[in-house]
Design a protein that fits this description.
Chain lengths: 464, 778
């Protein structure tokens, strides 16, 4: 039955989307400016669009198109509507959702941006779009030695991939250094210092595509967390214990051959330029009991600076990471409960905590957040500003009987811009807090009663 | 618990004192347990909660396996990650007591939903068991000389440095639980000897079984107890109690010991156990003689003696002949190498360099006695004298125990650990008796023995007084009282005897008041000195986990965590099936921390295999490459302390590699590595030394650090400074250069033209040649 309703819903959705799509063709982009920031391994694209409705009916939304490789590595899309003139510009965040299009050419992926108010015929609107790509810089050569610096390829299109007609557009690419080995030139294109400019291009039809490859030097740390499991354990006795298991790797060009410590220590500038040794984690303020260790014990190279607004943990893995090298470690800390746990107006409690990874400038391929609620809590649900996989588990910790409910949130391709607050609501009766102390007290009580009884009972068969 | 039942409406003051003394001694025992546990936590506080040193890592790894796969998998565990390509049957070659203990603790905690990690349980096993050990010491000494001596001995054992050195938190080694098992077995033996109870005799066999499970040192028990039995028989102290204490232990104990896979039939086959069987026969003969003596008239008995002696001689002769034949059939006379080196201290250094190369198998120096048992060394003689007044079965046992352990500790520094409990027991007896005498004289001088002194020094003494007083009272009242278990215990006669005697003695041994007070003060000062020394030893000397080193410099604490740095590197950045060769010291750590297959490890069961690695390390680069390549080795790990001055590095151990290698492969000669009998690495060193693999791997590109190549351990400039490696490449060097890992380069491709030219050569020395004479693996 549910399946049939599902099919029905899809059919309805398809029917509903057709008129929307047909009206989409009535939009055109008057002016587009794109700035691609390649300075780190997280590719940030800032897109400034001026959209005009050239149709006859009002348009409520527009589509952003991405190539199949981009859609795979797309970590986040955000859109803002600009209202007001230069001095009094205000930004309004817009709703962005992944969209399916039945007749998408070449597996193009789409995101749908819903305007604040439907765009009437002849009206224009200015949009700021930010989208972030991960794993999009391909090291070439694939393997480098210790003394070489890291060169990468970036694949993109010189013109913006869009389902709409684009009247005028320019693309600026910012590279981390002036060393650019090569770039595909599509006239007019030129390079000045750290910037490559493509365009302006006039009147490009919808779905035009002009592939370009930029080959440049990028020695920024390619810190990729392959898997991060954060466990947030709520204790109503007053603290929040956070344990983070990292599996870190260097995602850049693989290290080849010799690792010489003497070169690494004496000629830092030329040796191991792409390797990284220090990482920075931004932790909440008022953090305490911080530890940094791995499977075989404590790692002693870390510094903690606690501050008013945030704490910073500066730490080094056990060894410097060269391309392809891995390291695992665990960071754990404790924060006061009252900063993060609140009571809603209806008596429910909710945890308000930051999503994402505390490491600065790091991609997380797979992030799992486990919120361990206290034993006896019920009806948990999580509220997040973006879609994640949610699941419920049960965990047995200190002297648990029924186990603690664990809300599991799982998301792939997480970048620092995902570090936004999320909430987990649940109901909890404070009487459950006393269960474990009561168990301990009664256990001791029974031990003493039993020993009393043992001393007073005579188990001898014959009296002497 | 006895205190709970004792206060009754009609209780006399002595009963109250008895109850008070019992409560006090329970309280003191709890405090002693806390002390024993907490004095061992310096390593966790100063460093971290981590497994220490070498062998504990292996035990930790086995415990991990046990907790993951269960007991049956554990017995059948064939470990293919060590002794490549031979492997090792862990389940059958390991003493499982420690592992099973920690595994059980972990399992119980986890089934109570207390999620402690296996590592945490392992780290804290040793401190917990040292608390048990001090309680066992209390019980043992109480059986010998009353509870006052017991408490004194327990508090001494709780902090004796020798035992602390093996049982700090993280020192997860067999000795940690074995010392408890040792003392507890002795306690049950003495208990059986004093009570003649078959119940305790059975418990004794079980305790012995636990000891066999835990440590190879169980042979000490199975030789010491027969010796004591023999001593009792020879000195005419045979009694049925002695028989009950000994015969069940041998029968049950041997049967149980044979259940432990690592012991198996050794429990009846090796010479270490023969003494127990011999004494077993003797005690039966003696028992028979006593029995016959009981049922016959003196006249008939004389006849019987002549008969039995003549038959007995024949039987004895046959038995001895069988024994001699058995012993002679094995080349070492049925003794294992370690046991032989105990009997003949020079044996190991002559024949088994691998045993001699371990620092803990060396004889100790005099300062190490002072370091490890401190003032106990001076108290022991007093304790021995106290044991002779009067000499009972139990006190003769502890005297025998101390004499034997003093000998063994003189042979091997490791066995200082067996001496420590004996020294504590003796010193506890000595202290207790001294306090007894001094406080007794003070009380006598002050007039009125009922005057209870609440001095701090009296606490040790009070329970003993109360207990002995209580015993005699109870012995009389016991007919009327309900016969509880406590009552029955008090009935035994040997405890009564000393207490009656000591009362009589007290009057004779009255010292002047001033002398007593001064002597008491001196004793307390001695105790204070001991406490200070123990705390210092626990905090400074014995707490370093040895995998992480620290040094105090002007700009604060400096941490050298190079071992774990490189193990972590190996574990994350090499293939899971890669083989790592290193000297055997680092085998356990490599398998446990880096999870990589090793060629040799600290379980030095195969001398040839170790000699192969030693030979490779002492050979020139090319020959070493061939040996390692034939063993599928991909990485070679060396420990080098020359940059920061870490003295126990591979260059300092290198002569042992040469000796052990040369012992099996004679082309390695120690003389080639020495210049005029001196081991040196500077420009005077021999060419063989300067060209061997260990030298090259240790000093590769070392000269580039400071331009001179100054070795801070050997305090000299190195001999050969600039050289290249042809068959190895450096893949990792830790931050302070303490660990250097090299990769074997793949065999070079043959060049078509050269191959022909070299064809005649390749058969003997080519790249992929397997028939090379120097390569022992073919």
């Amino acid at each position: 039955m549910a399946a049939r309703i599902g099919i029905f819903a899809v059919v309805v959705a398809v029917f509903l989307s057709i008129p929307a799509f047909s009206s989409a063709q009535d939009l055109q982009i008057v002016n587009a400016e794109r700035r691609i920031d390649l300075s780190s391994h997280i590719v940030k694209d800032f897109l400034t669009l001026k959209v005009e409705n050239i149709g006859i009916s009002p348009a409520a939304e527009m589509l952003l198109a991405f190539s199949p490789t981009q859609i795979k590595n797309l970590a986040m899309v955000q859109a803002l509507a600009i209202t007001g003139k230069k001095k009094k510009k205000t930004y309004l965040p817009l709703d962005v959702k992944p969209a399916e299009q039945p007749d998408a050419p070449n597996d193009t992926g789409y995101y749908r941006v819903t305007f604040v108010s439907p765009l009437g015929p002849g009206e224009t609107v200015s949009l700021e779009v930010l989208y972030i790509l991960t794993n999009s810089l391909e090291p070439f050569p694939v393997e480098i030695t210790q003394s070489e610096s890291q060169l990468v390829y970036y694949h993109d299109s010189a013109v913006i991939l869009s389902p709409y007609h684009v009247k005028q557009q320019t693309t600026f690419v910012k590279t981390p250094s002036t060393r650019v080995e090569s770039f595909t030139s599509i006239e007019p294109a030129n390079r000045a210092g750290k910037e490559i400019k493509y365009g302006p291009y006039e009147n490009r039809a919808s779905y035009s595509y002009a592939p370009v490859i930029i080959h440049f030097e990028n020695n920024s740390p390619f810190a990729v967390v392959e898997e991060l499991v954060r466990e947030i354990e709520i204790s109503h006795w007053g603290s929040l214990q956070i344990t983070e298991h990292y599996r870190l790797t260097h995602g850049g060009a693989r290290h080849k051959g010799v690792f010489s410590r003497v070169d690494y220590q004496s000629k830092r500038s030329v040796s191991g330029a792409s390797s990284f040794n220090a990482l920075l984690a931004v932790l909440p303020p008022r953090v305490n009991s911080v530890y940094y260790r791995d499977d075989i014990g404590n790692i002693s190279t870390s510094h903690l600076r606690t501050g008013f607004r945030k704490s910073e943990l500066e730490f080094e893995p056990r060894y410097p990471l060269f391309g392809g090298w891995r390291a695992t470690f665990i960071i754990g800390y404790r924060v006061p409960l009252e900063d993060y746990l609140f009571e809603a107006s209806d008596g429910r409690r909710y945890l308000n905590f930051t999503f994402g990874c505390p490491l600065v400038e790091t991609i997380v391929n797979k992030l799992t957040i486990k919120v361990v609620l206290p034993e006896g809590s019920k009806d948990p649900y999580a509220i997040l500003p973006f879609t994640v996989n949610q699941d419920l588990q049960v965990k047995y910790s200190y002297l648990d009987i029924v186990g603690r409910t664990v809300v599991v949130l799982q998301k792939d391709n997480v970048v620092p811009t995902h570090n936004v607050p999320f909430q987990v609501y649940y109901t909890f009766k404070p009487i459950y807090m006393l269960a474990e102390p009561f168990m301990l007290v009664s256990a001791f009580f029974f031990v003493f009663v039993a020993s009393l009884a043992y001393v007073h009972i005579d188990l001898n068969i014959a009296r002497k | 618990m006895a205190a709970l039942e004792s206060p009754q409406p009609a209780a006399t003051t002595t009963a109250m004192r008895h109850a008070f003394g019992n409560v006090l001694s329970v309280l003191i025992l709890v405090l002693i347990g806390v002390l024993a546990f907490s004095i061992r936590l310096f390593s966790v506080i100063k460093y971290e909660s981590v497994i220490h040193e070498f062998d504990p890592y292996f035990n930790y790894r086995v415990t991990q396996f046990l907790s993951k796969n269960g007991i049956y998998e554990f017995w059948n565990w064939f470990d293919d990650r060590t002794w490549y390509p031979l492997g090792r049957v862990i389940g059958g070659t390991v003493y499982p007591g420690l592992t099973l203990t920690a595994g059980t603790i972990w399992w119980v905690l986890n089934s109570l939903n207390i999620p402690l990690s296996v590592e945490t349980v392992c780290v804290f096993t040793a401190p917990v068991f040292s608390a048990f050990a001090s309680w066992a010491t209390y019980l043992l000494t109480k059986e010998v000389k009353g509870s006052g001596a017991g408490l004194a001995a327990a508090v001494l054992l709780a902090m004796v440095p020798s035992y602390i050195s093996r049982s700090v938190a993280g020192s997860y080694d067999n000795e940690a639980v074995a010392i408890f098992a040792l003392i507890f077995t002795f306690y049950l033996y003495i208990k059986t000897l004093n009570t003649g109870s078959l119940f305790y005799a059975t418990l004794n066999a079980l305790a012995y079984f636990y000891m066999v499970c835990s440590w190879g040192g169980y042979t000490f028990i199975i030789n010491l107890i027969p010796m004591h039995v023999l001593l009792c028989i020879v000195t005419g102290r045979y009694s049925p109690r002695l028989y009950i204490a000994y015969a069940p232990l041998v029968v049950l104990g041997t049967l149980l010991a044979a259940l432990v896979p690592v012991v198996g039939f050794n429990a009846v086959l090796t010479s270490e156990h023969f003494a127990s069987f011999l004494v077993f026969i003797i005690i039966h003969v003696v028992a028979l003689v006593y029995y016959i003596k009981g049922i016959l008239t003196p006249k008939m008995f004389k006849v019987a003696v002549t008969l039995v002696v003549s038959i007995g001689m024949v039987v004895c002769f046959i038995v001895v002949a069988i024994l001699v034949a058995l012993v002679a059939s094995s080349p070492t006379g049925g003794w294992s190498g370690r046991s032989l080196s105990l009997l003949d201290p020079t044996y190991a250094s002559k024949y088994i360099p691998i045993i001699a190369s371990v620092s803990e198998h060396q004889p100790p120096t005099w300062p190490s006695y002072f370091m490890d048992i401190n003032v106990l060394a001076f108290l022991v003689p007093a304790g021995i004298i106290a044991c002779f007044s009067p000499l009972s079965d139990s006190s003769s046992f502890v005297v025998l125990y101390i004499v034997m352990s003093v000998y063994f500790s003189g042979v091997m520094v490791r066995l200082m650990l067996v001496l420590a409990p004996a020294a504590c027991i003796m010193s506890g007896i000595a202290l207790s008796q001294a306090f007894d005498v001094f406080t007794g004289s003070i009380k006598y001088q002050l007039g009125g023995s009922s005057n209870s002194t609440d001095n701090a020094e009296d606490t040790n003494n009070a329970p003993k007084d109360d207990a002995s007083a209580g015993k005699t009272d109870k012995g009389e009242e016991i007919v009327k009282e309900r016969s509880s278990k406590k009552g029955k215990k008090k009935e035994r006669e040997p405890a009564d005897k000393p207490s009656v005697k000591s009362k009589a003695k007290k009057k004779a041994l009255v010292l002047p008041l001033e002398t007593s007070i001064v002597a008491l003060l001196l004793l307390i000062m001695l105790g204070a000195f001991y406490v200070i020394h123990c705390v210092w030893a626990a905090a400074e000397a014995y707490s370093a986990p040895s995998i992480v080193l620290t040094s105090q410099s002007r700009d604060g604490l400096h941490v050298f965590d190079d071992f774990r740095e490189s193990y972590a590197w190996l574990s994350h950045n090499t293939d899971v099936d890669d083989k790592v060769a290193s000297w055997w010291d680092y085998g356990y750590q490599t398998t446990a921390m880096a999870n990589r297959t090793v060629i040799v490890d600290n379980n030095t069961w195969n001398n040839t295999h170790i000699a192969t690695v030693g030979t490779a390390m002492s050979s020139p680069e090319k020959a070493a490459w061939e040996i390692f390549n034939s063993l599928d080795v991909k990485y070679v790990l060396v420990v080098f302390g020359g940059l920061i001055g870490y003295p126990s590095d591979d260059i300092n151990k290198f002569l042992w590699m040469v000796r052990i290698g040369g012992g099996v492969f004679p082309h390695i000669k120690e003389a080639d590595y020495l210049r005029d009998g001196q081991y040196r690495i500077d420009s005077e060193a021999t060419p063989t030394m300067l060209n061997c693999l260990m030298y090259k791997l240790s000093y590769y590109r070392f000269v580039e650090t400071d331009g001179k190549g100054y070795d801070r351990v050997r305090r000299t400039e190195i001999g050969k400074k600039h050289f290249k490696l042809t068959h190895f490449e450096e893949v990792f060097t830790s931050h302070h250069w303490m660990v250097r890992i090299y990769k074997l380069k793949p065999a070079r491709n043959r060049i078509r033209g050269r191959a022909k030219k070299l064809k005649s050569k390749t058969t003997s020395s080519g790249w992929s040649s397997k028939s090379e004479k120097k390569n022992p693996w073919v």
